[in-house]
Every structure is written in C-alpha cells, then in structure tokens.
Amino acid sequence: MDRLTEWLSVFEEKTKEWGQVFQPLFQDFAQFFKGLGETMKPTFETFVSKVTQLGPKMGQAFQGWLERLWQRKEWLIVGSLIVVLVTLVLVVIAPESQKKIRVSQTNSLVAKEYGNKKQVKILADGELEETIRKNKEAVVILADPSDRYYDNFVKSISDSELMADFNQKVYVYPIIYQDKKIKKFYQLTSGLTMIHFEHKREQKRITLNSQKEIELYLVNHLNLLVTD
C-alpha cells in the first residue's frame, strides 16, 4: 500500500505540472469547474466512502489525495483531468458508436429488401473481411445499390425456389459505405460481382452485367463459381 501512496503522490505532482502547462487554455474554465465541484461534492463524498469500503489503506490513501485537491481548490487541475477524460471518450467511444449506427442503418434500410433469409446472409458494414477470414469457404456477392440491375439481383437472389439449385450459403455485401475504398481493394469493375473465397484467398469471380444474365443464369453462375 506504501507503493500506492507513493504513486498517488507522484500522480498529484504530475497533474500540477499539467495544470501549469495548460494554464492559459483552462483559466477561463476555472470558475466553472469550481462551481461544478461544489455542486458535485456530495457525490464525491459518496464515491470516496464506497472506495474506502474496498480496503482501509487503499480508501484512506485515495481519500487523502482527493481531500488535498479539494482543500487547495485546485480546480484548474481537476478541469484538466475532466478535459482529458472527455477527450478519451470522444476518441475511443465515439468511433465505436458511429460504427454501430452505420451497422444499424445497413440492417434496417438494406437487409429488409432481401428474402430467402436462410440461404442469403446480408453483411453489414465491417463484416465483410471478418466473414472472409473466419469461414473456410465463402461465396460473397459485392452489390452496389446504385447499379442499374441491382433490383433485379435482389429479386432473383431472394427467390428461394430459384436458389434451391444452389446448395451453399451466399453472403451479400451491399456497398454503401466507403464505396471507393471497397471497389479499389477488391478491384471491382462491375456493380454486381460474385467472388468465391477459400482460406481467405480468392479462387474465382464472375460479374453480372445484364438483366437477362441475372434472371436466367444467376444460379448457373453461382454453381460455376464454386466448381473447380
């Protein structure tokens, strides 16, 4: 526990140094944080009591450190720490939240257009590479919703009777986000491209470039795709 006390002491000194470095930036916020601190003091005291229950020495060391900050009214330092915490939240949590929103949008706006759910799996943003990596074998169709034959493709692949002659699962990735990056990485020359992967390596690809090709030969192309 002496090491913990020593660490807290060093951390306190470091926060003072941070406060001096960022002093010009945080001077205008000092009064705000001071008022905020007075308002949150009961919450701080409750938190300290909970920490104290975890262990007398640990709780006392932590409580002493907080009290020293409190008594000295070092709100500039506290403000600096809050800003650091907010920055961490923005850097770590915000991108993950954005990703979840994009996944939700893909599922709600695109996936509901497809039928034949047992055989056709719609991949959301971020799931394409994971699917190729985790599956020993995968038939992936990269579909651009702006392609002129996209609606014909959705109708055909959603037809469970038509797809009955193909006995494998099909993964469809609608190219909605980062379309330029996806098209460049997979070297796409068509809005509808079927690719067969084995052990994360591309084995064969076939493009769909006409309504007739989709409506009459989709299943034939799929079977040809997985045939050596």
Topology, element by element:
Blueprint (H helix, E strand, L loop, with lengths): L1 H20 L1 H4 L3 H25 L1 H17 L2 H35 L10 E3 L5 H7 L2 E7 L6 H8 L12 E5 L4 H7 L6 E7 L2 E7 L3 H15 L3
Parallel strand pairs: 1-3, 2-3
Antiparallel strand pairs: 2-4, 4-5
Provide an overview of this structure.
There is one protein chain. With 228 residues, this protein is α/β, with parallel strands linked by helices. It has 2 domains: 2-96, no CATH class; 110-225, Glutaredoxin. The protein is 61% helix and 13% strand. The protein contains 9 helices and 5 strands, in the order H-H-H-H-H-E-H-E-H-E-H-E-E-H. It has a 5-stranded mixed sheet, sandwiched between helices. Helix 1 (2-21) packs across helix 5, helix 3 runs antiparallel to helix 4 (56-72) and helix 7 crosses helix 9. Keywords: Membrane, Transmembrane, Transmembrane helix. The chain crosses the membrane at residues 75-94.
